[in-house]
Amino acid sequence: MSRAVGLGVRVFAVLLTVLGPLRSTAEEVPRRWALVVGENQGLANEERLRFAETDAQRMREVLQEVGTVSPERTMTLLGTDAAKLREALALFRARLAVEASPRDWLLLYVSSHAGDGSLHLRGTELPMRELVDFLKGAPVGVGLLILDSCRSGVATRLKGLKPVAAPITMEASDLEGRVVISASGADEYAQESDALQGSFFTHHLAVGLRGAADASRDGRVTLEEAYRYAYARTLESTLVSPGGMQRPTFRMDLSGRGELILSEPQRARGRLTLDVKAPGRWLVMASESGALVAELEKGEGPTTLAVAPGAYRLLLRAEDGYLERSVRVPLDGTVSVGGEPLEQAARMRLARKGGAGSALLVAVGPSLTSGIVSGLSSLAGLDVRLVREGRLFSGVDTSGLGLAVRRGTGSRVSFQQTELELRLGAGPHWKLGAWTFSGALEAGALAVFQSRIPDEDARFGLEPLGLVTGGVRLDVRSRLSMLLSASAGGVMAKRDSGTALVPRASASLMVGYAL
C-alpha cells in the first residue's frame, strides 16, 4: 500500500513537472482587447456624418478577422453620447482589471465628430484627455488609441507621449507603452468619401491591415507598416480634395525591441492574391452586395489581402477604363489572380504619364506677346486657358483651348492695335511631385483690329498661326496652382504685297483652378 502511494506521489510530481511549464506558457501568451466606437451625429450645428458607424463596424471586422481579437474581448458602441461612452469605459476598465495581464495589448478605436479637444457625440462632448487617461491607466502592456475625427491631432499633443515624425521606425518586443494615432492634424478635417463608403483614413488603414501594408511580404502587418501605408494613401487621396490635405499624426511611448504585430492576414479564413508584378490601382468589390471591400494602390510584386470567403469582382485600372475579373475566394483557402491581360493592363497604367483619370484646369493671368507689324514691338493683355489632362491617344495626354486679348499702341505712327487670339493644342505632360511639365503643338487664328490710324479707316484682318508651347505648373494647395507658359512660332500676316510668315513669341503667368 505504501509503495502504491509513493508511486502515485511520484507520478503526480512528474505530471506537475510536465504540465506546469505548459500552463505557464499558455498564460504568457498575450491577449488582445478592443473597444470600438462609432457615432454619426455630432453637435446640433454640425452636419451628420454618413459613415462613422460604418467605419467602426469595418474596423471591428478587420480586428476580428485578421487582428486576432476575439469577439469575446471586443466591445462595440454604435451610436452613443458622452455619458454612455464613459459608462462603457468604466465597464471595460473593470473587466480589464480582473482579466487582463501586463502582456496583453488594447486597441481603442473611435470615429466621430470632434473639435476643440473633445469628441462630439449626439449633442454632448467628451474630452479626448479622458480617452488618453483611460489608455494610460489600462492594466495592459501596450495600448493603442486610433481617432478618426476632425482635428483629432490634438490628442497626440497631450502630455506624456513622444512625437514621432514620418517616416517612422519602431522597435518593440516585450512592449510597454502607449500609442496614439489620429486621422488628421490638429487643424485639419478628417474627410469621408462617397466612393469609398467611409473615411479615407479608416478605409486605407483597414485595407492595410488586410495585407496591402505588408511591405515585408511575411504575412503579418506591423504597427509601422500599417501607419506608413495609411499615412501615404490618406495624403494621396486628399491632396486635391475640397477639404484640404489630411495628414495622420502619430505619438508613442514604447520600450523594448522587436515589432508590434497588428494583424496576421496569413491566418485569415480567406485570402486573395493579386499576382501581378507591375504596380496598379485595384478595386475589390463584393459581387452580391456591390460593396467596396478595398481600393488600393498595389506596389511592385504580388499582394495578398485577407477577405471573407465569397464571390468578388476585381477591377484593375487599365489604359482605358477598367479591366474586370470575377473570382470566388474559398473557405480556408487562397485564390490567386493574374495572367497576361492583367499584367499588360498594369504595365500600360504604369507607363502612362498622366495618371489614371482626366482633370480639367482653368487658368487666367497676364501675358506679353511680340508684335507682327512695324512700330509695335510688343502687346500686353490677358490670357485664359482651359486645360484637360487625360489620354487622347498614345503619347498625347494633354489638350487645351486658349483665348487671349491683347492691346498695344504704335510708336512711329500713332495707332491702336487690339488682338483676339484663339488656339487649340495637344501634347504630352510629365508629373514630378507637385510639378507638372508639358509641351504642345498649337494652331489657331488671330483676329487683328487697328484703329485711330491718321487719315485712314480702321482695319481688320484674320490670320492663321502655329506655335510650339512649353509650360510648367506648380500645385500650391488643394485645387490652386501657378502656371508659367512660353510659346514660339509664326503668323501668316497680310502685307501690301501679299502674305508673309512673321515670327511670334509670347509668355504668360497664370493662376489655375482645378475643376
From TrEMBL:
GO molecular function, one term: cysteine-type endopeptidase activity
SUPFAM superfamilies referenced in this protein's UniProt entry, alphabetically: Caspase-like
InterPro entries for the chain: Caspase-like_dom_sf, Pept_C14_caspase
Domain Peptidase C14 caspase positions: 31-227
GO BP: proteolysis
The protein's name: Caspase family protein
